[in-house]
Write a structure and sequence with these properties.
The protein is mostly helical. It has eight helices and two strands; from the N terminus they run H-H-H-H-H-E-E-H-H-H. The protein has a two-stranded antiparallel ribbon with strand order 1-2. The longest helix has 27 residues.
Length: about 200
């Protein structure tokens, strides 16, 4: 039996992140850690060490679906792990991220006013006024917070749905960050092979 390591408790980070954002939307900025650190691991190390060891979300799904039996544990449909679906979902996710940045820019430029809502599944707007006091920070900072928290919460809900219906870490099969870091690793390792003449 493997000895428990400190990073085996990073699933708690996922819970803390969403709890903090529920009470103060500005904590949504902390989610950038989950974006930048995996990319850093992939670029620097050319591996998916972050996904395999440090991903709090993957650990949370494993904990809920595996240890706490909140999963039917059925194999996911093969199309979920197909290249076209993973790449398509990544492109869609990046488009939503780009739209969020564009909305942030509109608020920063004064072309649009701050909208204090969370958008679940990119369509359902949920009023979220209690999480932010107007004027605390520049409006564009708050706009980014609302948009980024929307993305993070929506992806969490998708992950929970597939966790219940299929195996606990089904989300990891088509996770946009996982797909992106895998692509970076392939490019980096291919470059290393060319560099060393392998």
């Amino acid at each position: 039996m493997r000895k428990t390591k400190w990073y085996d408790y990073l699933w708690i980070w996922s819970i803390v992140y969403f709890a903090l954002g529920f009470f103060n939307i500005l904590f949504a900025w902390l989610g950038m850690i989950d974006f930048l650190v995996p990319l850093g691991f992939a670029i620097a190390g050319g591996n998916k060490y972050f996904c395999n060891r440090f991903c709090g979300r993957g650990q949370l799904f494993a904990k809920l679906g595996g240890d706490w039996k909140c999963s039917f544990r059925k194999p996911a449909p093969k199309w979920m792990s197909s290249k076209w679906f993973r790449c398509g979902f990544l492109i869609f996710f990046l488009a939503m991220f780009g739209n969020m940045l564009f909305q942030t820019w509109l608020v920063a430029s004064g072309a649009e006013t701050l909208s204090e809502v969370i958008q679940l599944f990119w369509t359902v707007s949920v009023p979220w006024e209690w999480t932010y006091t107007a004027g605390t920070v520049p409006d564009w900072v708050a706009r980014f917070s609302f948009g980024f928290y929307s993305l993070m919460l929506t992806s969490l809900l998708i992950g929970l749905i597939v966790m219940v219906l299929f195996k606990p870490r089904t989300w990891c099969v088509f996770c946009p960050m996982g797909t992106m870091t895998q692509g970076i690793c392939k490019l980096k390792n291919r470059g290393n092979k060319k560099l060393w003449g392998k």
